Amino acid sequence: MLDYAALKQQFDESPGELPVCSNPSQDSDALHFETETQPKPQGLTGTRLRSYAFAVLTRKEYSKADLIEKLALYALDRGEVLKLVDELAKENYQSDQRVAEMMLSSQKRKGKGPNRIKMALKSKKIDSSLIQDELKETDWNEQAYQLKVKKFGLEVEKEPKLKAKQIRFLMYRGFEMDAIMQAISRKAED
């Protein structure tokens, strides 16, 4: 162990000189100082956490659950994060409704059906009832037909293997069986 009082006295007497250690095994001990100061806690609090939340929300819309998880990674106190996210939701800076609507339009553009959209919302911990009206208003039969035409063409298949392939494709995309059957049996002139 080091004698801190002796070291301090030695450095105070001759500020320009460094002490020479005669025993090399003591060199490694000299590097391990015992400090009585406690490490500072890492994490954001108060206005810094709020600023980070605004910075995150300006780049991308987050669901309430995703925002809580994102902020909790950097925050010191999870309770403060929950309180902040509730406040941001009240002030409409964060909105699950907006996230759901954006996800709906994005998934529809990608050719996804109602079941796939509901699964995507569930994975983001968003209630699908937020966009229930929009889901009902969409013509899923037409969406399925357009996707079928894009992938397989206008021809109505008579061969069971090819029909099964189209059904599997549209089921994977999240369409209901009624919409699928109408899409694969619909003729171009209909």
From TrEMBL:
Domain RecX third three-helical intervals: 141-184
Keywords associated with the record: Cytoplasm
Domain RecX second three-helical: 95-133
Highest taxon above the source species: Bacteria
Gene Ontology process terms (BP): regulation of DNA repair
The UniProt record lists the keyword Lipoprotein: no
Coiled coil: none
GO cellular component, one term: cytoplasm
Disordered as annotated region, ranges: 8-29
Location in or out of the cell: Cytoplasm
Family annotation (InterPro entries): RecX_HTH_2nd, RecX_HTH_3rd, Regulatory_RecX, WH-like_DNA-bd_sf
Record-stated family: Belongs to the RecX family.
Function: Modulates RecA activity.
Record protein name field: Regulatory protein RecX
Originating organism: Acinetobacter kookii
